[in-house]
Write a structure and sequence with these properties.
The chain contains 3 helices and 2 strands. By secondary structure, it is mainly α. The protein is rod-shaped and about 170 Å long.
Length: about 160
């Protein structure tokens, strides 16, 4: 960009330098043909004015083009921001949905675990009750055997 600007500046300075140095030649009237008529006018000044007019139109065109590019860039940036916001909202929505699903699965797993623990507790209580009953039965049998052996011994010693 700097090279182009430097080149254009150099060309403008060269035109200004040549016009200044050759002002007398540029200002001399000449016969100029307009196609249907001929007039006496300074051809150099006419060409210099036309060149200046062309330069003004060129600068105006460049500024208009640059302005339209800037406006298009601004519009594009706004669209990109809107798309980014939509993407962020969609991502946040997915994270919220994922969190809800994970919480639901966690609650289900916790309920299943509690149910299994309750079932195991019931089985433990049943086994403990069976063990108590078995132990009581064994103790009862042992007492009965001891009584029956104790009765047999007392009958044998008492006779």
């Amino acid at each position: 960009m700097k090279a182009r600007t430097a080149l254009l500046t150099l060309i403008v300075l060269l035109i200004v330098f040549l016009a200044t140095m050759n002002w007398q030649v540029l200002g001399q009237p000449n016969a100029i043909s307009l196609g249907f008529t001929e007039v006496q006018a300074p051809l150099g000044l006419i060409m210099l004015c036309l060149t200046s007019l062309l330069a003004v139109f060129f600068v105006a065109y460049v500024l208009a083009l640059q302005g339209s590019v800037l406006m298009e860039t601004r519009r594009h940036n706004k669209e990109m921001l809107a798309q980014r916001e939509l993407a962020d909202k969609a991502e946040a929505s997915r994270f919220t949905e994922l969190r809800t699903v994970l919480e639901l699965r966690h609650q289900e797993a916790q309920q299943q675990l509690l149910q299994r623990m309750d079932a195991l507790e019931e089985q433990f209580k049943a086994r403990a009750q069976e063990s108590d009953n078995s132990t009581a039965a064994y103790v009862g049998q042992l007492e009965q055997q001891l009584r029956s052996q104790g009765g047999a011994k007392s009958g044998a010693t008492g006779t």
